Description:
The complex is a heterodimer of chains A (453) and B (350).
Chain A: H1 6-34, H2 38-74, H3 80-110, H4 115-150, H5 155-186, H6 191-197, H7 200-210, H8 218-237, H9 242-255, H10 264-273, H11 278-286, H12 293-342, H13 349-368, H14 371-399, H15 407-438, H16 442-452
Helix pairs in contact in A: 1-2, 1-3, 2-3, 3-4, 4-5, 5-7, 7-12, 8-9, 8-12, 10-12, 11-12, 12-13, 12-14
Chain B: H1 3-26, E1 37-43, E2 46-51, E3 63-66, H2 84-91, E4 95-99, H3 112-131, E5 136-141, H4 143-154, E6 159-165, H5 177-184, H6 187-193, E7 197-198, H7 200-210, H8 214-225, H9 229-243, E8 248-249, H10 250-262, H11 265-268, E9 272-273, E10 276-277, E11 287-292, H12 300-303, E12 315-320, H13 326-329, H14 331-347
Parallel strand pairs in B: 3-4, 3-5, 5-6, 6-11, 11-12
Antiparallel strand pairs in B: 1-2, 2-4, 7-8, 9-10
Amino acid sequence: MNNTNEIFETLVESQKKTIEALVDTTSKIQEAFKSEKPIEKTTEVCQDWWITQLEMLNNISIGAATDVDENKESSKNQSESFYKNMFEKQMESFKKASSNNISFFNSINQFGKKAEDSSEQYTNMYENWTSMVESWTKSLNNSYEKISKSFPSGFSKETLDLFFNSSNMNEKIQDVFKSFLNINKMGDFSSENIKSMFDFSQINKMTEKTFNDFFKTEGMNSIILTNINALQDYFQNQEGTTKEFKEFWSLYVEKFPQIVSGDFGKMEELIENTTLSFRELFAPVLKLITNTKEKENIDLALEAIDKSTIYGAKLAKLQFSLYSTGQNIGSELNTLITEKVKEKDMNSFQNFFSLWVEINEKHYSKLFATDEFSKLKSELLSISLEVKRNVEMQFENRIEHLPIVVKSEMDEVYKTIHDLKKTIKDLESKLKESTIKAEPTNSVKNSAKKVTA
Amino acid sequence: MSNVNFLNELSSTTDKLVKGFEVLNGLDSVEIAQTPKTEVYKEDKLKLYRYNRDNNPTVKTPVLIVYALVNTYQMLDLQPDRSYIKNLLDQGLDIYIIDWGYPTKMDQYLTMDDYINGYINNCVDFIAKKHEIEKINLLSICQGGTFSLIYSALHPQKIKNLVTHVTPIDFSIKEGLLFKWSKDMDFKSLVDSFGGIVPGAFLNDGFEMLKPMMKFQKSNGLFNSIDDESKLSNFLRMEKWINESPDQAGACFLQFMQDLYVENKLIKGELVIGDGKVNLKNLTMPILNIYASEDHLVPPSSSICLEQFVSTKDIETFKFQGGHIGVFVGSRSQKELAPKVYNFYLDRES
């Protein structure tokens, strides 16, 4: 496809030039540092870069802004918002780049004055630079998110979303990778030093992103809260039971604040240390209610809370095993990267990514193959499906009095249809067989004709 | 690593992203299973297709392809330049294929008996009647392979030659997460909780976890090919195929998982389908059993044991270097596997 949008072309071209300028300047700076007159040389290089950047910024600022306005009037292209968004994001990046330039420029001016000052300036410059890279990566992700919205629904859109998600993941990996980049400026590739450069909270975040499904707790939290609310509503509306419910509830919350804390870690502790069952606790109050669908629902609500709590505790265990594995992966990565840096065998982000995938695959496959993980995962699945069934039963009970066919009734109809179809097919098959048997063969037919003749 | 390298990589990344946007925006819809075919039989949601030929087949006995219920047969015909189906057609086979369709709640009570003694048997009878022959050839894949083995053991008089690809036979193996995890799962509860129909998306999530980092490798693969229209189209075809996985009829799924994955009844001779017990010793027809050396879904050890349980002396176990899907879509499979299968049928055509 040829893109005819001038703003887009301008931005892309400018962005490319900016990066090329950065690459070129970094090389020149490195050369300048080695030269006989580092101060003069590097100052010269930085001044050139600074002027180029300013010119580029001014050109984009004037040109692209005009084009956006014209485009807005003349075209109803859905992607326009994307270009504008991208432009804005790029401007932010350019501004970051500009401030980085200043820092860079200052650091070079300081060069040769005092070792500590230079070192500090260099560190500032480096931090600004990595911050710019981070901002730039995020701006790309934001731009892609915007594209996704302007895409028509369909398969390409889904793929773009997939890509966007992977890009987000990539960003997380970049965060870890950035730590690795930082060791360059330290110049000390000891294992301890590298280890300290990794932020373990980032590794945890990556673990969460990697196994996203195991870290979604909103659903179960919501089920617990909904059912607790249902209980409260019911008992508060019932004459004669409000007092008992309130007493039980107060006692419960007082004794087991973990349940309503929403913190699954605390729940795990609770489950392990007690034989708590919400259902058992409320049994005396339930006796006060007559046998109705409402009672059945209250019982189901209590069961849902119990099961959701157990789910939370087991999920916390599983999450803990994933986090632990993630941390082990971080440690192994540290060691391997140290070796690779020493051997100058770490040349690109792609190299890093491959290594990251390889080590993750090894550790997680090992974890997944353990009996404990297999059992825990299976239990989690079963409990979550039981809760799903529980919620569906509550729902059916609530709409039972309405003139609506419910799932269990439809299932009976489907079963009947299936059985009838099978009976018909069997009968058809038997009929076919008996027809074949009853039909005289050709030779029999011929001899019969002869006899008749 | 120098900063220059990193910046260079960053720069090329930008180029890729921008070009990727252009390529994605310019792509037409992605189509799969384009080899021409004609619907010849229909029963409930099942459709039986016959692939169109311009000339007479060189192997006269028709071949019925039985694919798994999980995913669709379209993987065999994913992209025109790497279509296993087209390749087999070009070799000279007369090919029929079962499209199981997409089960709904209505189909939740379909059992293995319905699929094997019902649908497969009716397709076999239809083809045999059309060609006025008593026996036809079977070609089967994965779960479809297990179904075909069971079918052939129950109706050996109707099958001339049997080819199985990446087929699970021994479910007691220690390799493979799918086999391990299945032992701990409560499939009855699972089927009930899903309301009798097990979602294809749920199974796909499970398959994805069997190789924990696969989704990231895939994302990275997409990233590396996003600026190349041809590579991107192929990537999208595979994604389309994965995303169009059918749901599973609960009763059949439950029986397959419980009787085979959990209790390993097939090789024990304890599996009952309909009114009949499945005895693999009834397999007296020639068999070509193909397995993939790097298969993480059906590890080789689950497949290669077949010859221990059958009566036929004409059995060949063929190792293909690759993974579960690579067997069908890899470039090497087009060169090696299709001629291998064709010659197997041709040599036994007399």
